[in-house]
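Protein modeling request. Please complete all fields; requests missing the sequence field cannot be processed.
Requester role: graduate student
Desired output: 3D structure, token encoding
Chains: 1
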Amino acid sequence: MNEITLVDQDLVKQIQWEGDSEQYDLELQGLGPEHEPFIVMNPWVSDSRPFYFIEDFPETRQCVVWTYEGEWVAKMFPVGWTPGKQYLSIEIIIPKMKWVRNPNLSKHYNFRGTEYKQEFLPDAWQSKNELVWYLDPEVNPLREKVWAFKLMPVGREPVGIIDMGLVMPRLPRVLDVIFISYQEPNCEENWQRVLEKAPYAKRVHGVTGIFEAHKAAAYLADTDMFYVVDGDAWLVDDWRFNFKAELFDRNITYVWRSRNPFNDLDYGYGGVKLFNKQKLLRTKQWTTIDLTTTITKHLKVIDRYSVETRFNTDSFATWRSAFREGCKLYLLNDQIRLDKWVTKPNVKYSSDARRGIKDAVNFCKTYYNDNKELRKINDYKWLREFYKAKSK
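Delivered output (392 residues):
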């Protein structure tokens, strides 16, 4: 429509419809130049999309009227038109197109760098093609170009591919930190330590059940990934919440190493974890004895210390930690670490740890093939009752 004069919309709005279509069109005709054809757009049209699909301008002495779903969209008046020369009606057909998102990119990421979906209006020429938006190289770890979105014709082959430019995901600069505590005697001290490192940290406290507490943390988080610090964990001096997961690696659960001052072991037990919020929220139930393997099959342990896990604060806390970890190590057939848990007899509450490991081995031998019974090790109330029963 750039080749034909377009009448100013404000002038068109001044023409009042009074029920006489011929008179209305004569008044519209009076808005344009006398010696060249011109177009009047309907200023009251409810859907602006049809404007982009007016392509051809017939050479005719009739008034050409483009309509869409019973509503006139535009009128082209030729030189010297009168109502007696009648009308040529053209129905605008908008081809159907569908948005396709790269399945390797989380659907929960918002993108900047383009308008898309309801905000993007392809014109008639574009709608015949496959329109492709690509990831900005700044966030693309691969050498080749990676597409993020496609707008594709429905029911017909595209005539070509149009590069629509680059998009950038709106990834948070700072990820949420959630401190999860229950009844750990040292949880307040550890919480203050978290606030020293991350003053913006949030807390989940007193939620019964490890799975339920982590779900509560996911609901509390505002970022697509969030850190979890356990209630008995003391952050080491050089720890920073500054890890940046690549765009294609944000569905992975990350675990940092922990120093265990009780038995000199250092591995993922009790360490800081980084979860994908949506994966955790979509997890309906805990199906394994280890939360991280329930949420995702993709787990990555990072060889860097994050915390000291100070679980031996009282008799029950020490027994509970040893019992739960003992069950996991036994089922993993990790005899070396299992033995290490009971090799320091002079450490505070060491007898409770030895008892916890012994109870864990006996429990796992009894219920080795009963996953439902084994999952009880993550139920705090059950652990307390089991501990009391064993103490009699």
